[in-house]
Design brief:
By secondary structure, the protein is an alpha+beta fold. The protein contains 5 helices and 12 strands. The structure holds one DNA strand of 18 nucleotides.
Length: about 260
DNA sequence: ATGCCGTACCGTGTACGA
């Protein structure tokens, strides 16, 4: 197979970020981009932005919250909105997961629930959401151990202590709790591989920096955006990078894009 | 310089983010 470059990026509004997303696509030349937090419904999604740059795009957005998409110039087939048995929040299956087969790879663009506070109902929702997603992901490998699957997006979990700038700051907060980390680790136990960390090891390597408190220039961030690859896909990875340059300047998303190169 | 919060919404405030 020919080399393919795939990426994931929480853009924090596709409309507010349209110019930066277009410039980034042209600069990086990625083949597939999984997008999170488009913050729009289909009617206001900037379809032409992708089409004029040679990408097909599938979007799943219900309102101004959440919203996920996949843009591809290596095919976009069998689009799936929500995963099997995806748990609802307040009786709504939110726009947090979309899948498509691009160049033979089953791409999932994922925006894991935030959790809000330990003890908040949103936290239980987050854990259940991750648990059911893992069941679905594991079932794909059961059905075909050679399946090429990429679970990519904003996981809203910092799996290791050095994935946050100061563990003391996060004491009692979400993203670093035992249950969240266990829910993330279950994907690794199921055979999925964090294919970025070996190419971008910590400490001090992050994908997200809060807009407030000068977190970015102070290098106070979190690693919460991941590409988890099935074994067959992990075997094709030749490189990976977190594009922290994209976090600089006016009009940046609070998340940096994460790029993976496939052989 | 990487620079002092941002996004969407019938909205001059509120919800949400992590």
């Amino acid at each position: 197979m020919e080399p393919v470059k795939i990426a994931t990026w929480n853009v924090n509004s596709i409309r507010a970020r349209a110019d930066r997303v277009e410039a980034w696509l042209q600069r990086t030349d990625v083949d597939v981009l999984a997008i999170q937090e488009t913050k729009t419904k289909d009617e206001s999604f900037p379809w032409e932005l992708f089409e004029k740059n040679g990408y097909e795009v599938a979007h799943f957005g219900l309102d101004q919250w959440n919203g996920v998409a996949i843009a591809s110039r290596v095919g976009l087939e069998d689009v799936e909105r929500t995963f099997v048995k995806q748990p609802p929040f307040k009786e709504v299956a939110e726009a947090r997961a979309i899948a498509a087969t691009c160049g033979g790879v089953r791409i999932w663009s994922l925006y894991v629930p935030n959790g809000r506070e330990l003890g908040d109902p949103h936290m239980q929702y987050k854990l259940e959401w991750l648990d059911v997603l893992r069941e679905h992901a594991a079932s794909l490998l059961d059905a075909d151990p050679g399946a090429q699957v990429a679970l990519m997006g904003d996981w809203n979990v910092a799996p290791e202590d050095h994935d946050v700038w100061d563990m003391a700051f996060f004491e009692g907060k979400t993203h670093v709790s035992g249950p969240e980390r266990a829910a993330f680790r279950a994907f690794l136990d199921a055979g999925f591989v964090d294919v970025v960390r070996p190419f971008a090891p910590g400490p001090g390597v992050y994908t997200y920096w809060d807009y407030t408190q000068l977190r970015f220039p102070k290098k106070q961030g979190m690693r919460i955006d991941f590409v988890l690859a099935s074994p067959a896909l992990a075997g094709r990875v030749t490189g990976a990078a977190i594009d922290r340059e994209e976090r600089k300047g006016k009009g940046a998303s609070d998340h940096a894009p994460v790029i993976v190169d496939l052989d």
